[in-house]
Amino acid sequence: MTWLIVVISVVFAVSALLTLWRIITGPSILDRAVASDVLLTLVICALGAEMAINHHTRTLPVLLIVAAVGVFGSISIARFVARKDNVDR
Prior knowledge:
About 90% of the residues lie in helices and about 0% in strands.
């Protein structure tokens, strides 16, 4: 069981590092927005895995807040890009 936890942790860590790299070097704002959504999804998955491993639900409110921040952030970025696109035309 402990080797599985180590493998899961390594996979999440490598994925988070690659996602951070895309956020830093993304050529456009949309690439950075998608990468931040992926990073928030990784955080949600990591917290969910931690809840399943330790058999508790104490971090469920944190999961809901992180999900809400991701949704509202994606909506605001989409509106910003759409407004900027209309100005350019």
